[in-house]
Structures are given as C-alpha cells and as structure tokens.
Amino acid sequence: MLLTRSIRMPFARSSQAVALAVLATSLSASLLCAQEFSLPAPDLNLRGRVAAINLTIESQDAGASRAERLEFQNDGKLSAVKVTRSGAPVSSVRYEYSRYALAKRQLNAEAFTPKKAILFHENGAFQGVAISENGANMVCDRVFDSMSASPDPVSRDICLTANGNQDLNEITKLDPDDSNVSVTRLSFGDQLRASWWIQRDKKGRVLIDHLAYTDLSFDRRFHHRDGSVEERSFRSGSNQYTVRTWDPAGKLLRVVTSLPNHPAEEQRFSYDSNGRLTHLATAGSVRHEIDFAYVDDGQGNWTERRATENGAQVEVVTRNIEYRGNSPSGNKH
After folding, report:
1. What's the rounded Cα separation, in Å, for the pair 194 and 209?
2. Helix, strand, coil content of the chain in percent (nearest 5)
3. What is the pLDDT of residue 251?
4. Closest Cα partner for 102 from 82, 118, 122, 117?
C-alpha cells in the first residue's frame, strides 16, 4: 500500500524545507526571528484499512534536490526518516516502539544539535532525551520502570555510539521515593549536560516539567488542570525566548518568539472539527494569513491540501492512499 506526498513551494523565501511532519509541531523559532517562513507540515493521521505507508516529501533547496522519505509501520507509527541531497544520503533516523511508546532511536550527527538535549512528547508524556556530539552515531534505548502505574513510566534512557562501546548519555532518577518531584541528570561521561525536573500534584498529574541545560538555556512546560499545556523556552547566547500553547487535545494554538531589540513574532493556528489545520496567522516582522482546504477520500483521510494566501495558491500537498479492498472516491471539504 502506497501513500505519496509531493510538495512544490516556488513561493518559499526560506532555504529550509518543510519540517518533518511528525517531529515538528510548529515552525522553528529561529526561522521566525530570521524573518523566514515555511508552512507547517500537515498531520499524517490515517484512518481505515491501510496496511502500510510510504511517504515521500520532495522540495528544492538552493538549487539542489533534497528529498525526505518517511516510512511507517503497519499500525501507522513512524519507523524511519531518511534525507538525501542530489541522491546522496544526508541523514537517517530509525524508530522502534515498546508497548508503552517510542523505545529506541538510531540517530546520526545531523539528527540532533550538538550538546543540546531534546524532548519528544507523545500525548503529553515524556518520550525521550538524546544528546548528540559532532560525528557521533547513536543508538538510544529506553529502559522502563515496569512497576510504575504513571502514564509516562520512563525510568532511564541510554544512548550508545553505533558500535555500542561507549555510553553517551544516561538518565538517572535522583529522588525515586518522592512521588511529587523527580529529578533526572543528563551527562556525557562525567560532565553534567542538563537536568530534568518534574513536579506532580497529589493525584500524580504533571504540573511542571523543566529541562535546564548547563549553558543556562531551558525548556519549561506547565500542564494546566483543563488539559492545556504552555511551554516556555529560553536559549542562551541568542537570548531567544519562546512561548508555545497547546489545547487539551494537543493541538498547537499559539507560538510567540522574541529576541532583544527585535519585534515579537506571533503565530496563531485554527482547526476544523477533524483536527486539521484550517488557518495560520502570523504577525510581527513577517505577516501572513494563510487558509487551508482539503479534499477527503470518503474514508476519513484527506488526499489533497491546498494553501492560499490573499486568494493566491501557495502550496499543494497531495497523497495517494491505497486501501485493502476499497477504492474510495474523493470528496471536497
């Protein structure tokens, strides 16, 4: 079964390609502050009897052909991301899953920024941390606490070099007996790189999770009682401050990014009843009002997404889906 998505973006002013659809939930803050712009990647959620999926994203980058291929398991979960430029491999990330969630990632140096810890979230739960060094290929294994009844039962995450002979990063709980606060340390060898701190209420619900780097950067998330989430991030060096807000269903609603002596950049997102992005508004040094319309195949999946700005078409995303025993016809929504 084949699902193909092709993108043509002759209007794009940024050399950045469309962000990887599953790994990114918003436009990069660095793109905003650089006064560059690219559209958010569409959701990949699929319904119905789809046995397997191959997704290809093609775009032009500074005159060179850059292709991104996303591969999926039979259950629709992302299994691999491969990037090539002019036919030559650039990067590759492979994903494996346990019964809880994401269990392993195999990365190369381009997959993560050196010396920077990255959080992955799925349904609001902590999904993993990886620290990359220049030129280091890594395999990250998640070790779960099988006795834990919490919704995010991660105990520790160990990342090894590709040949498996060196620990790059290990997460260790410092306060295992404290049900309200847990502290995690991230280190490379004997050098502390970051610490992760979580505070819960008496019912075990996460109130705050806070990742602090040794360079004074931080990521802090506030989990509100209504299910909405607010994230505040700061990057030392650039002094960039970013606030992101999600609704209780996990949809990104608002992103505000600011730099010293620069106007703040704001994005607001609107969705339809199926959770699909319908409107993106940006304000600041870059201003855009973009509307999104979809063609539905009658099986609950869209086969085309068109983006228009001021009445002009700026992007068309198409995907062909083959179903087991079905031949759906497209319907415009």
Report:
1. 13
2. 0, 55, 45
3. 87
4. 122
**pLDDT the model gives residue 243:** 93
- What is the number of H-type helices and E-type strands within the chain? 1, 24
How many alpha carbons fall within 13 Å on the CB side of residue 328? 21
Residue with tokens 């995907």: 319
Quick check: helix, strand or coil at residue 62?
Answer: coil
Amino acid occupying residue 307: A
Cα–Cα distances in angstroms (integers) from residue 78 to residues 47, 138, 154, in the given order: 15, 18, 20
177 CB contacts (<8 Å, ≥6 apart)? none
Segments forming the whole domain that contains residue 219: 3-332
Q: Which residues contact 241 (CB under 8 A, 6 or more apart)?
A: 232, 233, 234, 257, 258, 259
15, 66, 77, 220 from 4: Cα distances, Å: 23, 16, 16, 37
Encoded tokens for 173: 């709980």
Rounded Cα gap, residues 132 and 112, in angstroms = 6
Which position has the higher pLDDT, 57 or 295?
295
What SS3 class is residue 285? coil
CA-to-CA distance for 188 and 325, rounded, in angstroms? 52
Contact (Cβ atoms closer than 8 angstroms) between residue 62 and residue 40:
no
The count of structural domains within the chain is: 1
Query: What whole-number distance in Å separates Cα of residue 33 and Cα of residue 29?
Result: 6
pLDDT value, residue 269? 94
End-to-end CA distance of the chain: 24
Rg (alpha carbons) of the chain, rounded to whole number = 20
The string of pLDDT tens digits covering residues 129-179 is 344 444 444 444 444 333 333 444 333 444 444 444 343 344 444 444 555
Q: Which two tokens stand for residue 233?
A: 């991030």
pLDDT tens digits, one per residue of 36-49? 456 776 666 777 77
Q: What is the pTM of this model?
A: 0.56
- Lowest mean pLDDT: which of 23-37, 78-92, 137-151? 23-37
